[in-house]
Design a protein that fits this description.
Blueprint (H helix, E strand, L loop, with lengths): L2 E6 L6 H7 L2 E3 L5 H9 L5 E6 L5 E15 L2 E19 H6 L7 H4 L5 E4 L1 H11 L1
Parallel strand pairs: 1-3
Antiparallel strand pairs: 1-6, 2-5, 3-4, 4-5
The protein binds a DNA duplex through loops.
Length: 131
DNA sequence: GCCAACGTTGGC
DNA sequence: GCCAACGTTGGC
């Protein structure tokens, strides 16, 4: 199973919105590198929900419930379906940056990438920091 | 094919 | 509010 990190601005779609909805179509990604990651996702993979801008923290775990298909809003792009697993953390960007084991996270290396892979050891490290 | 200009993201 | 990073566009 693979792990991922997906960003959302709480002002447009928050973790609470996801819990309320019970699952959502993760669409609107308009970046080629992010699209490649979406296409690589398999049903059952897990992903951190990263709340950007206001929180700047990992606040929950999601599960991929359907693999990539054309984004209904623009079929040049793709979307996956996700559901909330549980709230964690928050593990802040500040804490992630302060942890040497996480220095190579894509979140850090390419801060603008909205869908990024997470390595197994990084996943465990972040979970450990969530307490 | 190069690169300057511009737009967007997102941290600070 | 500012600006760095990055992607895209368009003139040449």
């Amino acid at each position: 199973m693979a792990y991922w990190l997906m960003k959302s601005e709480p002002s447009s779609y928050s973790w609470d919105d996801l819990v309320r909805d019970g699952g959502t179509e993760w669409d609107g990604v308009r970046n080629n590198a992010a699209r490649l990651h979406l296409k690589a996702m398999k049903k059952g993979d897990e992903a951190f929900f990263y709340a950007s801008m206001t929180d700047k923290a990992v606040v929950g775990i999601m599960r991929i419930t359907r693999e990539a298909q054309p984004d209904p809003k623009d079929t040049d792009w793709v979307s996956v379906r996700v559901e909330p697993v549980k709230a964690i953390g928050p593990v802040t960007l500040k804490a992630i940056k302060a942890e040497p084991k996480l220095a190579k996270m894509e979140l850090i290396r390419q801060s603008r990438l909205s869908v990024a892979p997470v390595r197994d050891d990084e996943w465990k490290t972040v979970l450990g920091m969530a307490g």
